[in-house]
Amino acid sequence: MEDGFIVEMVEGHPQLRVCEPFVARFCDRLTACFKGGGKLIIAGNGGSMADAQHIAGELSKSFVEQRALSPQQKRTFTGLNNGTTIADNLQNGFPVWVLGLNAALSSAILNDFETPYMEFAQELWVAGSSQDLFLGISTSGQAKNVFNAMVVAKAKGIFAVAFTGQSSNPLCDLADLSIQVPATETSRVQEFQQVVYHTFCKTMEARFFATPGQG
Fold it and tell me: What is the pLDDT of residues 31-59, one digit of tens each?
């Protein structure tokens, strides 16, 4: 079922058929990222930042599948105060970093840097590595701070993905891979984007955590 979620996406939303190969490629790249010890780094503004946090929430704990710790993982808590209870309640997940959530850092950059739109770029420069994958979300693809962060991603050898509406835009021009949903109106773009990111979150979960016999 790990790739069946992509099929379900198209069956439930035929307009998204144009996105199918790009979502599949994204899932493959993200799988390689996580298997290689990297993390997903996401940037977006406003509703796109909310979507970035939504993605992080779905990936960082159980979504559809249960992700209980393995017996081997639980044994590492043996002898620790309250360790058994904590281990029994923890869930496995993926490492995800949403840029811009550190208000102290963002306000310092806004105050100290002469060039605008550098908050995401600075944070990615410090936090990112070539093992990671960068996902830049912008309904229009015109977000300057997301673009600047993508420039940093490219400079650091981080695979960069643009997640936008269908209009031509600078973010997609720069990205290694673009997922452009078939809409231009902000609300409609966001509706399609949610369907897409739920699809890749479920796909990742199935690839790594599917119950034996169900994957």
Answer: 999 999 999 999 999 999 999 999 999 99
Which string of DSSP letters, residue by residue, matches 146-203? HHHHHHHHHHTT-EEEEEE-SS--HHHHH-SEEEE-S--SHHHHHHHHHHHHHHHHHH
pTM higher than 0.90, yes or no? yes
Please name the residue ranges forming H helices in 40-163: 47-60, 71-75, 83-89, 103-112, 119-127, 144-155
CB 133 within 8 A of CB 158: yes
Each residue's pLDDT tens digit, 75-88: 999 999 999 999 99
Question: What backbone torsions phi and psi does residue 114 show, to the nearest 5 degrees?
Answer: -75, -35
CA distance 170 to 174: 6
Q: Give the Cβ contact number of residue 22 at 10 Å.
A: 17
What is d(CA 164, CA 9) in angstroms, rounded to the nearest whole number?
17
- Structure tokens, 126: 């410090």
Number of H helices, E strands in the chain: 10, 5
Q: How many CB atoms lie within 10 A of CB 96?
A: 19
